[in-house]
Amino acid sequence: MPLSDIYMIIGFSLAAYAIVANDAIQTLGTFLSSNSERPWWVLWLYACAILVVVFLYGWFLNFGDVTYGRLEKFPMPPMGFTWLHIIPPLAILILTRYGVPVSTTFLILTVFTPGNLGAILQKSLIGYVLAFGLASIIYFWAAKGFEYYCLNNSCNGPSKFWTSLQWASTGFLWSQWLIQDLANIFVYMPRHLSVGLLLGCLTLLLILHAVLFYFRGGAIQGIVTSKTNTEDIRSATVINFLFGFILLFFKEYSKMPMSTTWVFLGILAGREVALTLRFKHREFKETRKMVVQDVLKASFGLGVSVFLAMTLPPLYNYLNGVDQGNTAMQQEQKIEHTQVGMLTKDHPHAEAIEKARKAVTR
Fold it and tell me: CB 3.0 to 4.6 Å from 270: which of 2, 126, 132, 322, for a disulfide?
């Protein structure tokens, strides 16, 4: 097996584990905390059933592309996979170990195509501001009475209606998150998966999610449980729907990947600020400190991402005597070729176009 393929498999495995441990908890965190009395495998079966549906639907719909076209501007490395592609998921594992909500979108994708960093950063920051603003408005005005009721009636337990609605909201949010973040994992795989790769990757993801559910989320789960009343199923339902609709909006907005971490933190921050101002259940400076700490943790992860994206490719090129200008040109050509390939597959006369293209290139 070529060394590049070995690096590809190692990179995919590490990225899958790191992203499941770090990013998936943003979506499933409230689900785990509000269903702590249920067996872990019940929650796992529900989440993985949705994962399989989203995975297979994307594969059938997009000619084997399970990322829903979000890697169109992130071609396979022109020089093949190398050791530098292993470093980003390792960094995620280390940061996750200490509970840092690092953005895997920045840390992994920007190493493959540093030129897309600005577009990813812009979309992610817009997502944070939008999430913070919506959460602040909703929880300051519309959800005041609702959250007050939940806080003062938490001992009564939710009804079957709220339990069903919370599971539905989790399924909706989980599907939207998968459509956004599968790109962070499958950037290590061919853009169109064969049946063998499809089954192998899916099996690995199911096993990794079993580990996540068995350990109830790990260190990142503390960011969720430290917020006001997130263990309540009714509160968790509102958070899930809000998060899911924001991701749905950005899914339709553009195919450029974004950091769901920043959207998640924006929702939690806006919610916590609004509830503090309304209920005054804690000092505002305490809430401000909590919000700032979450942002600083995410910013630290962003800083690591930018550092790796800016230093790893030039370092590799220098150590291997690769001309960086030629590498950039090859990457641009590969992006153009990928986009043309996607267009021809969607065209009603795709076969004729492909035959004409081959005839011209002979």
Answer: 132
